[in-house]
Amino acid sequence: MIRPVRATALAAAAVSAALVVTACGGGAKDSADGGGQGKAAPAVGAQDLNPHPVEDLKQGGVHKVSIQQWINQYNPNQTDGTQGDASAITALVEPDLFTFDAKGVPHSNPDFLVSAKVVSSDPQVVSYELNPKAKWSDGKPLGVADFEAQWKALSGKDKAFQVSSTSGYDQIAKVGQGKDEHEVLVTFATPFADWQMLFDPLLPASLNAAPDAFNKGWAGQVPVTGNAWKVGAYDKTAKTITLVPDPAWWGEKPKLDKYIFWAMDSKARTDAYLNKEIDDAPASAPEAYQRLKGDKDTDFRIGARWDQVTLNLNGARGPLQDVRARQAVTLGVDREALAKVAGKDLPFRPGVVNNHFFMPNQEGYRDNAGAFGKRDVARAKKLLDEAGWKDEGAGKPRTKDGRPLVLEYVLPADAISLAEDQAKLTQQMLGEIGIKVDLRKVPGDDYFDRYVHRGNYDLTQFRQVDRIYRSSSYQDYRQPDGDNSFNNPGRVSSPEVDKLLVEASRTTDAEKQVALYNEADAKLWELGHSVPLYQRPQIVAIRKGLANTGAPGLGDENSVRIGWLK
Q: What is the pTM of this model?
């Protein structure tokens, strides 16, 4: 499957999507019919990749995976490039400086780094010693110019760069050469705890140097690569992107001949897998799991991923501009009911999430939802009363100045039935407090580009994934800057939240950092920024003959070692 998205390449994947899931060793026991609802989610560190040494693998073969939409923007740092499939593909073809173990701990990738370490704490200085063999597809070696251009593009100083996040980069004071052309020194004006998050992936200076290249140079293509894989073909008619091994690659050669990504409707994925048109398929939705579990050529691989299903509220338009209306929506939704629907017939029940920054099975998790943690219809109605929305009686929307209280819930037209069921359930729940919810289906390929990223919705449900570096979440909750909402399309934030998140990113004391994130989390619940629903199960159906891929949880797959068993 696709490598998990990390660092600044943050995904917001629709519930209809099955992106970046991988699997563990022996496959899950079929317990769906035997009370799986009572079983806890896998613990942190759980992964299932069916590990095998390369000697067990055939040389060659094709790995075919599905993605949720055709990719229009491959720059993971641009505001339209945060869609998960795009970032995951980019991570396979661009320099990946750090890899993660099963517990989400980063380690230097020797293909690109001889070493990376903090060499001074006051000021904080990080030394990156680059592998002298590492080079771009245009023949240029990786070097200080690439680091400097990426820093300047993402620092936030030049507003012409339409960046999704400035986190960490805005704390850098300078980037310079070290003892030779292979050492880069990055000096921070203020400490940055998650420094490994930066420059990963590293992108070429030529495509970061000017706003036009940054914003438009990656539209529909990856112009320059620098990893084991390169793009062999884009076929917009067939909706496939084919990766092939780069013959100039200096590291361990891939076992596969081709890696094919096929954009298809979410509803088509299970059929495509059962017809052997793709090699893995998401099995986290009850309907998919039930259909796939009878296939005898299938492993179910399960991991513990940072994967939160979120109901996002748009505070930039309409009734939800009023914090009381957003709080009423939060109180009007029964999250336990939504999690129960999501876990029906699965091997374990998804856990409701009461935190924006931590998963329930993660160290540091605190329940900060407070009074917003449980559905409270009476309080929700009172808040709407206070906001001036008059109760018109059961079954009717409230009104204000002659206008009905109506919210538009946007979802992809290709959404699987679970997403539709949850949308309709949310519609019913909010109807009980006097909020009429209109469901609007939009083309799957347009869902992010024209609706979520543009703020063209009142309510929508999507996934936030792989926030292993907590400071990477800053972009989801920070205050917008003019037209740039970063990765906060609902534009709900506050100076207090901003201050806490910036302070947390500059705090190297782990205990204090956790406390700051939890303090910010409590304020986000009060603001009605969004409603964390549950931790999405990481369950993948995958061909039994595929090795070293599946459900990596918090870790990474090594794409060059993915292959078919002899």
A: 0.83
